[in-house]
Fold each of these.
Amino acid sequence: MNLFSDIRALVIGTLEMMTKEGDLPDGLSFGNVTVEPPRDPLHGEMATNAAMVLAKPAGQKPRDIAQKLVSILSTDDRIISVDIAGPGFLNLCIVPHVWQSLVKEVLSSGRAYGTSAMGAGQTVNVEYVSANPTGPLHVGHTRGAVFGDALAGLLDYAGYDVTREYYVNDGGSQVDVLARSVYLRYLEAHGQEVAFEDGTYPGDYLIPLGQALKNKVGDAYLDQGEQFWLAEIREYATEAMMGMIRDDLAMLGVSMDSFFSEKSLYGTGAIEAAIDSLRAKGLIYEGVLELPKGKKSEDWEPREQTLFKSTDHGDDVDRPVMKSDGSWTYFAPDVAYHADKVNRGYDLLINVFGADHGGYVKRMKAAVSALSRGKIPLDIKLTQLVRLFKDGEPFKMSKRAGNFVTLRDVVDQVGADVTRFVMLTRKNDAPLDFDFNKVLEQSRENPVYYVQYAHARGYSVQRRAAEAGINVDIATLGVADLSRLSHEAELVVIRRLAEWPRLIEIAARTNEPHRVAFYLYELASDLHALWNKGNEEPALRFLQEDDPDTSQAKIALVQAVCVVISAGLGILGVKPVEEMR
RNA sequence: GGUCUGUUAGCUCAGCUGGAUAGAGUACUUGCCUCCGAAGCAAGGGGUCACAGGUUCGAAUCCUGUACAGACCGCCA
């Protein structure tokens, strides 16, 4: 149930009636007609722009259309009054009963209140994290993981059938580098002096792996050439790294539905098939790329390569799928991977990339567009950098030196809930400052506590009510006399609850889970405000000891707020709490 | 040189399909615990929405250009 779409349906119905009666010309599109909460509550409870957006196409004055709309709309029994304001807005006042009954709706639907029909069971694949299996997840991956997981949760809530997927880059040369680095640690475990040169991973996290390898194979790999051990160590190390990454994700509360291995594309003809499918569309050719402007020409040697004509699908330059030595580029298995996603029949694809992969957006979209003949949309969300601060000083991290701030470091220090919420109180495409001191020492100012506190207060009231002998079980609240919720301050909260389904649709349409976080903050703020008004106006206190019926109605409202907070936090992957500790 | 992001209050940021007098937090000033948990609430000051054009009934929002910041730009992934 969505009150705003209900009233919008009423407005559209009225417009259609007007068309039938000749008050409006045939063939008008009502797609731009909105019904939304007005920015200023003094303007009423709902506002529609119908008269204004239709004035021009209808060739009539806004106020004339508005006048006619008013006379029809005001006969609906849900509507108290309709006013024409400003240049032609219609401000609607809704009968209190409609608002009050929303509380009942929330309580009976529970978490399902706000779930939406917009997804309509469409299948969507959300690919996120997809970090190389060469080390632990760092703080940048953390943001991608949090964002992707919240987005998946949001789409799930909005009615999509969501697959959460991790693309494991276990096929490229970086896993050879990993294997060589582990080999060095293995030699080290045997007491040898080793040097980590450029092109190896010097991080400490590989030390236990070298030790474990020694325990496993003894001295079998000593004094042996790479061809003897590389493949086996690669296998062994990749698996170990993925185990570590899964553990990291679990700390954050992220669990994937699917891990797709890049390696599985090799040797099966999958890459060849994907490239052939592009070739069949005339999009593969042999050619020489031009020197990118701004690059030094000394470093540049023209080479003939196998190229994908991505410029036919909106890219700026064509992209190589094969290196001049005949091996695949990184892009080729990516094309095959996305061909696989297309073939799996998803209605919608979403990739979450770090900002450093921004250069791949156009070519991936081009590839999916070509592979699916433009039928399957691919949305790519970039998460910008996380800038870490401690004591006001920026934290520098260097993956090469192996001293980077890991997901584990962050979650150990501040906890999964705070990490997630803080990272979601920012748009994905803007950089994020993450200050350890702020999220820890000044935790009172942390929005996650603010929202959880509202939820905890809601449960606190219920405990108090139960102690006072008032029945507050969910069935009783569900039949409470909600007409007692007539105070403006209470209606403010109900109107906020009414916005929830609409917010979900907006957030899901734009793939922007941060909107959920901001909404929850506002809803929590409304509840805190109402709570404190009880200090000055005893009639607004939730607990009216001598009046169980009124208490039940008020507590039903509080419970409805808790339901929505809980649902919202659930989308974001943050735990609602019933008590603050 | 090119591509992609971003630029809104002193600071950190929201701002929906273009809509009414641009909103929060923080900081500052001042109130509120005999009262459901003060991890809270209320009030006040604080703005050339980077800049310049354009589109229209209407622009922080769309378009063009400029400035500044960040990420990326064949034979790494």
Note: The two ends of chain A are 35 Å apart (CA to CA).
Amino acid sequence: MRWSSAFIPTLRDAPADAEAVSHKLLVRAGFIRQLHAGHYSLLPMGLRVHEKVAQIVREEMNSIGGQEFLLPAMHPASLWKQSGRWDVMGDDMFRLQDRGGTDLALGMTHEEVFSHLATSLHSYKELPQLWYQIQMKFRDEQRPKSGLLRVREFAMKDSYSFDLEDSGLDRAFEAHHDAYVRIFERMGLNAMPVQASSGAMGGTASVEFMVPSPAGEDDVLVCDSCGYRANVERGTSQLEEVLDEDDGTTLERFPTPGVRSIADLAGLESQALAVQQIKTMVMVLDGELTLALLRGDHQLNLQKLQDSTGAIEVRPATTEETLEALGAAPGSLGAVGVEKIRVLADLALQGRFNMFTGANEDDWHLRGVSVEADISVSEWTDLREVEEGEACIDCGALLSVVRCIEAGHIFKLGRKYAESMGISVLDADGKAQIPTMGSYGIGIGRAVAAIAENHHDEAGLVWPMSVAPFHMLITVLDVDDRTSMRIAEKAETAFRAAGLDVLVDDRDARPGVKFADAELVGIPFRLTIGARNLEKGQIEFTPRSTGDTQMLDLDECIEAALKNVRSTK
RNA sequence: CGGGCUGUGGCGCAGUUUGGUUAGCGCACUGGUCUGGGGGACCAGGGGUCGGAGGUUCAAAUCCUCUCAGCCCGACCA
């Protein structure tokens, strides 16, 4: 490929609205261009990387017995109604109607369609099956952001396993786990498997593959000592037990003028440390007003609340709703004496007494609250978000919190979808059995962005060989020099014969421009042909990652470069 | 969904408060001369009607109304 005829629109400045490094660089280097919020065009360079990532995924999926499909992106609503997710998916699903008024949806995922196909399975002899595709998904994200990291239309590899027995599902899950480890390793991503929430899909085991990056949107608890890794939406820790002094204090109202927060109350009353307070959060779960109680110094994790209740829509109550339900404004809320409202309490409040909480009257609080005696707790559950520095649940060492990009997610669905979608096979005894399913995803575009996040420097992108748009860049400094061009062509032919993707920068531009573009675009190796060195019989060879240029003798430069490339591959 | 900010050539921006000639700058682009190993210089050019619609006015990028779009933060600390 000749740069002079390639479409690689590099930019000196990043668009003003780009924030994430990958976003800036992918746009500047001419890999992607935004069409609309959450919708990006892949330009030729971007598509090359995208395809290479997809190919790695494909190869590893095939290696564990996956069969590739290509399913429609647009689905009839009926299919989603059958699984029950037409309603569950809410506003995240793009919906439309055809001319006849039939409801349709753009697929956010393909459990339904694959399950529908799986109704053609009739015998246990046909199991297990492992099906996958790489197809566009559509999600009406509330807030697309960070270039390719969070978009509304994206290619995703999704696979589904069908097994008769739970042990088969375990094997499919493990196979995916190992395949994902290989996939991310091959594309240069340091992805760690992490315990995760299963979300609204239900299911048991759930593991996310997380790539550390400041551009990520997930926080992961990491224990360097024992290897514990969990998303904060799921992870727990050992909490130091609080021994409340049993000084016989009984429930008592006391005035707290102007107190509106945990900190205010702690400042007013020396006994009312945050640890001694009950934080009362008013939430609305699928329209039902619910109180979530936490220790004053703890924070609610919405996903945990959602997971423990199975609620679809979770939001904080408005001040009006709160006033109407409890009779007080936020700042003086409490659950003491509340009977008609569902009360969820975090496990850290179990057995606590002599605590402080709001009295449900503005400017009044209660002291001497015994959680179990004074509050009608409907359910005890884990609601709080673990913070950095807490003790690892497994080994007690200090946990750190690492910001990550979710690059992959595997989980066991169980029989829920198979059942609702009507999949069943006859077992060896001739009895109908519902197969158990697993669901496994990798976002291709997000992987591209994650690689860019992890492989760049001040000058630009630094692609790993495995996903580089081109492996070798031949920069010709003196395009009008016959000898230079002839050598470039010879090298190009030789490299291509060796299986490399080669780009020749034959633009009539100043060297500075070419070098700057070369570094921005991030092709792993560069051969620089300049008349000056040519006279000395030499050519330069520069790996993008180190920038260390070595001089090669003209007559052996091709072999020497290839040797170098192979040793890095 | 709440809050904030922003829409002016391909990209980055100024001009808007205090309406007033042909709407300006840098980069990019075209032609030319020179230059030729890290985004070079000079000369000459092309391209926008100021997100959209409506309104006020002799006159609107600038004021008013509506609308569309984009970005950031928040949507846990009651």
Note: Chain A has a mean pLDDT of 91.
Amino acid sequence: MGNRPTLIDVAKAAGVHLSTASRALNESTSAQISPETVKKVSKAARDLGYTINTVARGLRTKRTQTIGVIVPDLTNPIFPPIVRGIDSFLGPRGYSVLVVNTDNDPESERNHFESLMRRQVDGLIIATGHTDKIILANYHNQGITAVMVNREAAGAPYPAVVGDDASGINLGVAHLAALGHKKLLHLTGPAESSTSRTRAQAFSAACKNHGLQGKIIKCSAYSIDAGQSAMDKFLNQNLHTITGVVAGNDLLALGVYHSLRAHGLKCPQDVSVIGFNNMPFANDFQPPLTTIDAPHYEMGVQAARIILNEIEGEASSPVKIMLPVTLIVRGSTAVAKKI
Amino acid sequence: MGNRPTLIDVAKAAGVHLSTASRALNESTSAQISPETVKKVSKAARDLGYTINTVARGLRTKRTQTIGVIVPDLTNPIFPPIVRGIDSFLGPRGYSVLVVNTDNDPESERNHFESLMRRQVDGLIIATGHTDKIILANYHNQGITAVMVNREAAGAPYPAVVGDDASGINLGVAHLAALGHKKLLHLTGPAESSTSRTRAQAFSAACKNHGLQGKIIKCSAYSIDAGQSAMDKFLNQNLHTITGVVAGNDLLALGVYHSLRAHGLKCPQDVSVIGFNNMPFANDFQPPLTTIDAPHYEMGVQAARIILNEIEGEASSPVKIMLPVTLIVRGSTAVAKKI
DNA sequence: CTAAATCCTGCAATCGATTGCACAGATGTA
DNA sequence: TACATCTGTGCAATCGATTGCAGGATTTAG
């Protein structure tokens, strides 16, 4: 790659010592240098097209101004907004983001973690559900600063930024109750994930509160296919026993759509469906999906804010930030059918 | 972050000199060291939990094993697959990926470019349509190695990996022709983008070939809103003058959906619509979108392959790789309505 | 048995910055 | 006038690796 000028070149051009040039160019040390010298050095730097070599700086300062972001899969539509939120906060502050995908594979997660460590990232933002408490405690003991986003690990030593899952599920159940539904089904995601557990518990509680009957079935992953096969299995032995579905997320809801169609059921006429996340294009599905909007971009922003604070300020206590969610009513929910 | 052991610690533990430890641990130099010494050093490294500091190595070797990926917007669903394709090829080969979003803003693009340079990336994969030939030539003069993906700049000094846009559009037009459509409309994207021009030209050519009437309208961006407003404008003065639409991409097609609905037209009964890209969830739209599948993941893989070749091998001539596309027929196209 | 070649390993320079310390000259204080 | 303080700059060590070169030990050749 290009042979860009170094600080020595700038110093020579300005007729000062290397260290003077360094101080002149550095925000925090330029006060030590006389204004004329600063001007001279800045001009030389500009003339030569000097840009700092962050690798060299990083070696000396032990700060790379790089944050590692660990996600399961960037093609899952909820993650790009999170990543952009992180980036939008960090970018203007001189930080860059290294994104890795683990596909929820612990082996892959370990490898990527090692790779990020080798690269001397200043901190980690973890969005994978899989990472268990032992690993996290381990990270913490190694002195690694990190923040969880969209997932929380109860008892984990790190701050977390999450959506208010429980009240989201509540909103969904209340909406169905108001439409006259009595018998509901919840599709829950993998048990390792904290969101799965939170949402499932909230579902049970909300059903009880509203005096509804609520069943729960498990999905092996947060994917369309997993949702579809779980729903297929359910419908094969329980046709016409429920009128409303609260899916663990939008992908599962989409799987439910497919399954309903395959079983000759219409949404929302026969069965109402509610998703979670309000993923991009949820409004363009068939039918447009009623769902809980979780502020993913904002979650990214908040996670970035916290980690920067931990890196540059002093370590705060492991706070938990819970962002509010809202119900978006679209075409997949309707008045309950008599069954 | 953690105080990990350095090479000196390993060398001491193994009772050898720093440089010997370095050579022992390095694939390409370990042959210079006696097998027993290599074993001793490896054991010491393992025992201490040593991992190399890539920042220090990067300073010395002038290779950071990092590739910068410049995209307009990660939340645009075609980019995550590209990024994952890149990552899947580069990751196992020891490279990491720094993704930046420009939002198609030249100022932002320049800033991000500078940031990547400061970080000493080994190469750039550019997926932004906006980057013009002058800038690219400029990069090239600075000795920067780069590859274009999903966009090509004719006459640019860099290799490019693209989908076969022209034959994709051909497939679409042929499909509509076979369904009896006579009057078609093409929504083209921003003129700066090479794909826009290629697709528009292919559309005109294909219409001529099939003896069809083909109109073209421009959209200000590749977005739902831009597609909708362009289509609105068209329909307001040209209701019932076309029966088929070939959109510049899936997002524009979605905009067309919205516009048709607002004008009381049904897809596909009144108007057939074809998209481009086969973005995720295109099958779940209302109606499921007939579209051209472009192999984005594979494009990422190929771009990564080429750039690694340029970095590690010798610079090849600026090749252009054109990946085949296929027509995916779903529910948005039907036999033409009489108008 | 000696000279040459080969094999290992250590020494030290280097990559491009940052930063504690020293010191010269200017300024302030009594 | 004498001494303390302050300002601005330079010197040199340092971050953690890689790598050309030198040289001792060992092997091979003649």
Note: The longest strand of chain B covers residues 66-71.
